[in-house]
Structure formats: structure tokens, C-alpha cells
Amino acid sequence: MNLEVKHTGNGILTGKGQQYLGEKRQANGKPVTNGRSEDSVKQEANGKGNIPRKILNVYSWQEIQRHNQEAAQWLVIDRKVYDVTGWAKRHPGGHQVLNHHAGEDAMDVFRAMHLKPDIVRLYFKPLLIGELALGEPSQERNKNSQLVEDFQELRRTLEAMNMFKANWVFFFLHLAQILILETLAWLMVWHFGNGWFVTIFISFLLVISQGQSSFLQHDTGHLSMFMKSKWNHLMQKFLLSHLKGLSTKWWNYQHFQHHVKPNIYPKDPDINVGPLFLVGDLQPVKYGKKKIKYIDYEKQHLYFYMVGIPLLIPVYFNMKSMQLMYFQRYWDDIAWVSSFYIRYFITLGPFYGIFGTILLIYVVKFFESPWMTYVTQMSHIPMKMSTEENRDWFSTQVLATCNVEQSFFNDWFTGHLNFQIEHHLFPTMPRHNYHKVAPLVRSLCAKHGLPYVSKPMLEAFGDIVRALKKSAALWRDAYYETGNRSSTLTHT
């Protein structure tokens, strides 16, 4: 396919390839490629087809790195340079993900976050503006090229081992346990009534169901259950929106930012939790030096138990989800989330009434919240946090995450997020394969002198509070040091 493309400098492409990511489509939604088969499409995406190579502009890393702002966003993928400025807001994973990598080599994150990268490349074709000059390395000069090469070789090895192929029996059993628990809760109320003992017992069943739904929707959000993206998206809507009452768009936009830049301030929204909590080493010192004291941060490790643990899901998650849905008018998400409440009112409303049903919903969320808070925070809060250092993909993920020791219970209780390192390196990998690839990841860490942190679960839970306490001490020292210094200068 020989496209005449001219770059206008503002993220808009003109010429014969001007249609938005290919205007003609097949019935299955894939772009029409002049009647060629999908194999030939993949060959073209890999540069293996007998397609005349068009002349491209060449760029240095110095030029590319200047285009790292929202008004000018260039990405490098497999030595090809793409201008995504005008298209970023239409990116299915959110424009922030592209902006976070503007001016950088995005090859590894591109492969990590997409189920079929070779097909996705076709959609990027109209955005292609050039390639790296011959003398330029494939990634920025500050990155360890040998580590990048070793990681890419590891990924090819895992692909050859079919580690990205899902076991449908595994996922079917996890889905079955969720549906059985939900159905059993309703049948118990229908048969035994709404007494206190029954209500407490079904709340316990629903907490387990909600927690496991969180883990399974996380799998589908990363496209690791089905081979087709659309089936993963549909299942995620069923699990997260219909079974849990949360917006998939909100979850994905926030979660993908966390994945591509974990523990990097301010790009990772999961660590941007001020002014309620200050985490890491930088935020507390910044607040302390500026004499900011919205709350007594010295006690944040204590009110974490009273505020952070019980209110993460029933208050913060629900508030953010509803805010995004209604302000952005995501009508499909609104419909799916509405079906969650309608289902509860139909099945449990006759026994508890409207107010009682709403109360039951949020009691379940209240008790689910500590479970999800500990599991999601144990692998990141105690780890290194920094501003952007432009590290390679492997180092970025390993330094910001840690694992929890494996056992049958730990795997089930954490939804296999006890293998957080492997999950962050390979987000689309089905979680039942994490334990198989962990030794290879550990070996690569040892080869390049990177820490591979794994700890017992209770220790990991305790490290959350210890990390908050450490951050509180940094805030206190910076806050009172500034005040003491000002007082000393006054007396002098």
C-alpha cells in the first residue's frame, strides 16, 4: 500500500491516506486492505510484505524528545516515528497514556498493552511521519540497550511458549464461582427470608463475589481472557458495570495510566492521593517545605485504617466513577451501571425495600474495601516513587512493584496479583501463567542487578503502614525544619 502522506506539523495528515485510521472496513471491523488477506496485512505491519517502501523523513532523538508536550506528541515504535497529537483524544485507552510517553521510545509499552500489536500498527499508519536516522539507537541513549534487548528476547521466548494463551477452563471456573455466589445469596433470602443471620451470611457471600469480580474484570480489562478484544470489553462491562456498578471507561483510563508509568509522580494517578495522604519521599517533602498542613499528616498511618481502608470502594471509587460517567456523558456505561442497581432492586428489593437494598449494597462494598485496598496497595506503596526518569520498560516496572509469596490461598485471595511484577511486565498475559514465567523474570533481574522483591503477605500488608509512617516523618521534618529555620533567622 503506497500512501502519499504529507505532515502538516499539527498532528493532522493530508494526502491519499487521509481517512481516519482507514475509512473502509470489513464486516468484522478490521480495515480493508485492498482485498489482501490478514496474513499479508500482518506481513505489511511487520515490514515483510513485498510493498514498495516509501521515503520517510529521518529524525534524531534530540528532535523527537522536543515533542513531549500535549501540543506536540511524537512516539517511536520499532524505530518508526508517529505524530499522535491530533489523534490522542480518540485513543481507546485514553489520551493521557500517549501523553505520558510523548518524546520517548514506546516499543515495549506498545507491545505490552495491546493484544495484537501487528494489527494495531495498521491503524497507526496514517500517523507515521518518519523514522530514526541510521546513526540513532533504537531507544534513548540513557537507556540500557542490552537490558532492552534481553527483555524483548524474553518476551519472544514467552510467546513461543504460548504463555499468552488463556486457559478457558480456568476463567470459566472463576466466572462460575461468582455467578454461583450471587445466585446463592438471592436464593437464601428467597427461601429463608431477610432475618439478621441470613442478611449477615449473604453479605459474606456477596463480599466474596464482589472481590472475585474485581479480579476477573481486571483480567478482561487487560484483554487476557479472550483472543478477541471485543469479547474482553463486553465481559468487562458485565463484570465491572453490571455486577459491581462501576464505569469501565473510568477504570481503564485510570488503570492504564498506572500501568504505563507506575509510581511516577504525577503521571500515576494511584499515587496522586493528596491532600488526604502523602506517599513516597517527594510528596511529603514538597508539602512540608511549602508549609501545607490540610491534615495532621504525622498520623496518616493511623487514619489510613479509619478512612483509606473502609472508604476506598464505597466512597472514592463510586464517586470518581459516577463523576466521569455523567460529566463525559458515557451513556453506555450509565446504562450498564444502572442495570446493577435495577438487578438488586428486582431481586432483593421485595425483601429489604429500596432503602434497605441500597444499604445492603454499600455494606457489602464497605467490607470488600479493606480486601481490595490491601491487595492493590501492598505491591506499590512501599516501593520506589519518583518523578519521570525515562527508564526502560523493564526497569520501570520492576523498581515500582513487588511480589507476594505464592500459595493456593494467596493466588485466590489476591487474584494472582501476588505476581505483580510479572503482571506489570506482561499485562495481557493470563494470570494462571505468572508462576511459570516468574523464574525467567527473576533471572533477568539478577543478570542486570535489579531487585526482585518477594515477601510474605502479612509483611506486605504491614509495609503499607510502615511506608505511610515513613512518609509522615519526612513531611514532619520538612515542615518543622522550615519553621525552625525561619524562627532562627528572625532572632538573628
Brief overview, please?
It contains 19 helices and ten strands.
List keywords for this structure.
two-stranded antiparallel ribbon, disordered N terminus, 19 helices, alpha/beta, 492 residues, globular, six-stranded mixed β-sheet
Secondary structure blueprint with pairings:
Blueprint: E1 5-7, E2 13-15, H1 38-45, E3 57-59, H2 61-65, E4 68-69, E5 72-77, E6 80-83, H3 95-100, E7 104-105, H4 107-113, H5 117-124, E8 128-132, H6 145-160, H7 168-192, H8 196-221, H9 229-242, H10 248-260, H11 282-289, H12 300-328, H13 331-347, H14 349-377, H15 393-400, E9 403-404, H16 408-414, H17 420-425, H18 434-447, E10 454-455, H19 457-491
Parallel strand pairs: 3-8, 5-7, 9-10
Antiparallel strand pairs: 1-2, 4-5, 5-6, 6-8
Helix pairs in contact: 1-5, 6-18, 7-8, 8-9, 8-14, 9-13, 10-12, 11-19, 12-14, 12-19, 13-14
Q: Can you characterise this structure?
A:
The protein has helices spanning 38-45, 61-65, 95-100, 107-113, 117-124, 145-160, 168-192, 196-221, 229-242, 248-260, 282-289, 300-328, 331-347, 349-377, 393-400, 408-414, 420-425, 434-447, 457-491; strands at 5-7, 13-15, 57-59, 68-69, 72-77, 80-83, 104-105, 128-132, 403-404, 454-455. The chain is α/β, with parallel strands linked by helices. A hairpin with a 2-residue loop joins strand 5 (72-77) and strand 6. Helix 8 packs antiparallel against helix 9 (229-242). The chain is globular and about 75 Å long.
